[in-house]
Amino acid sequence: MRQKYLESLISFCIGASWVLAFFIATYLFLHALAIGFFTAVLLFILGLLSGFLFVAFFEGLSLLQDIAIEKKEQTKILKDILSKLQAKSTDEEISNN
What we know:
Radius of gyration: 26 Å
Structural class: mainly alpha
Strand content: under 5%
Number of strands: 0
Shape: rod-shaped
Oligomer: single chain
Number of helices: 2
Distance between the termini: 49 Å
């Protein structure tokens, strides 16, 4: 339950970051258009890049969450393998005696 909530929250934040990036860029472009087209384009790019920082941050969090889930699964599989190997070795010791 907790993982799904966290995953949903991160996905929402990624989407909100994309929207924020485009709104900031559009806002800066429209307000700088009175100064000049070249300046407006530069501010548009600057606004997009500032929004992309948030997108990259939340994508990184999503990636770290995926890595943590994968490590938990690998640990569970390795523990299962270890318990089967230990059970097999104790069965062999019992049959050898």
